[in-house]
Design goal:
Helix 6 links the parallel strand 8 and strand 9. This protein is α/β, with parallel strands linked by helices. Strands 1, 2, 3, 4, 5, 6 and 16 form a seven-stranded mixed sheet that branches. Strands 17-18-21-20-19 form a five-stranded antiparallel sheet, sandwiched between helices. The chain has a four-stranded parallel sheet with strand order 10-9-8-14, with helices on one face.
Length: 447
């Protein structure tokens, strides 16, 4: 069977590339060994946000009295929360299948194996292609912690399907995934401890805002152990795990009912014949690509987590679009200037562009402009007793270099700042636009 484009992997990069290529009239075959949507849709972005929204509703009910509404301690039916999560995922997976069907994409369910740059085998069949996109995604990184192999720990996958709340939970890793689960379980009344090797949570997010978020969750009862290394794990028996650690204060341990391992992810590089292509790799061991996402082998592209540039679903989507345009001869290059990062805690944190650490390292002149979110009347009306921060980093010529927001709905606001940064606009240009009043986004005009 001959196709113009073969795609290995059906996550955000894979299904986006398939849809884009199909709309351009290409013949496309997409291979996926598990479920369409990849980790993001099936056990990542969408499932976690579904759970987090239930937790946010719980928070709202608990704090209803602040808004002169009768509230109290909400009753959360966790099995029904998990069931709703599964329903949302099924609906979106069916939506992807429908879109790909409309674009006449052939979907092959099975484990693909690459033979060479023009040949893929799957389920005993051979598929020939003119171009190929590799979009195999990433997997949970499991560090070699002594005792871990004998402990019944969770990864994000098990945590997403738990139907009984533990009394206590130790989260190893204070990155985005770790903090989102800390937010979820804390909102449902679980005693949470977060252990992080670095001196601050949320690496890659503005340190000032990360510290503010950590302080907020510490007030809610989450315990943080920073600059702390896990030395070993002891599964003492059913319902108890002891996590031993060391830090500047010496040695200690945390005993909890469950442990969630969340120290990062790594690209999937094995199991599909990647070695048969002889691709050039980066110093970190990821597949090296150019600005069109093309690898060292002409006609072969690597999008999403496989190239290791930015392990974010929305980055993968843009990379896929860029790769397909290049295959179709329509030009365009990938830009990473304004890739937003969002932490869907409550409150949310969102960043785009450069942070202060990066600018200092690069020796770039910049100015910090901060405003409390209370400058927005809409924010004050909807966030009783809560504040946040809008922090802009501006270059010497007035152009926006970075934007960092703590406060809801940061995830919806950050895209406007990203557009300004991507287009090289000046902060003063916000005043050219008319914002509806009252909205939280109006705060940009006040900077």
């Amino acid at each position: 069977m001959d196709f113009q484009l073969a795609i290995v992997g059906g996550g955000p990069a894979g299904y986006t590339a398939a849809e884009c290529a199909g709309k351009l009239g290409m013949s496309v075959v997409l291979f996926e060994k598990n479920s369409l949507g990849g980790v993001c849709l099936n056990e990542g972005c969408i499932p976690t946000k579904t759970l987090l929204y239930s937790a946010k509703v719980s928070d709202t009910v608990r704090n209803a009295s602040k808004y002169a509404v009768g509230g109290g301690q909400p009753e959360v039916n966790l099995p029904k929360v998990i069931s709703r999560k599964a329903k949302v995922v099924r609906k979106l997976v069916l939506g992807i299948k429908a879109r790909l069907s409309e674009c006449r994409v052939e979907i092959v369910a099975g484990e693909a194996r690459i033979v060479d740059r023009n040949t893929v085998e799957c389920n005993g069949e051979t598929y020939r292609c003119e171009s190929m996109i590799l979009a195999t995604g990433s997997e949970t990184l499991v560090p070699p912690i002594p005792g871990l192999d004998k402990a019944a720990y969770w990864t994000h996958r098990e945590a997403l399907d738990c139907k009984t709340l533990p009394q206590s939970l130790t989260i190893v890793g204070g990155g985005v995934i770790g903090m989102e689960f800390a937010s979820f379980f804390n909102s449902l009344g679980v005693q949470v401890t977060v252990i992080e090797m670095l001196d601050e949570i949320l690496r890659g997010i503005d340190r000032e805002l990360a510290g503010m978020l950590r302080a907020e969750y510490a007030k809610r009862g989450v315990r943080f152990l920073l600059k702390t290394k896990v030395t070993d794990v002891d599964g003492n028996g059913p319902g108890e795990i002891r996590v031993n650690y060391e830090n500047e204060e010496g040695h200690g341990s945390v005993v909890s009912e469950k442990m969630l391992l969340s120290v990062g992810r790594r690209p999937v590089m094995k199991g599909f014949g990647l070695e048969n292509l002889g691709l050039e790799l980066t110093e970190r061991g990821n597949v090296k690509v150019d600005s069109h996402l093309e690898t060292s082998v002409p006609g072969v592209y690597a999008c999403g987590d496989l190239n290791g540039v930015s392990l974010l679903a929305h980055t993968a989507v843009k990379e896929a679009e860029t790769a397909v345009r290049h295959i179709a001869g329509r030009g365009g290059e990938m830009s990473y200037r304004a890739i937003p990062s969002v932490v869907y805690t409550n409150p949310e944190v969102a960043s785009v562009g450069k942070d202060e650490e990066a600018l200092k390292k690069e020796g770039v002149e910049y100015q910090v402009i901060r405003l409390p979110m209370a400058f927005s009347g809409r924010f004050v009306a909807e966030n009783e007793g809560v504040n946040g921060t809008c922090k802009a980093l501006v270059g010497g010529d007035g152009r926006m270099l970075g934007m960092h927001i703590l406060g809801n709905p940061a995830s919806e606001l950050i895209v406007m700042a990203g557009m300004m940064i991507e287009d090289g606009r000046k902060l003063s240009e916000w005043k050219r636009y008319v914002f509806p009043h009252p909205t939280v986004g109006e705060i940009f005009r006040e900077l």
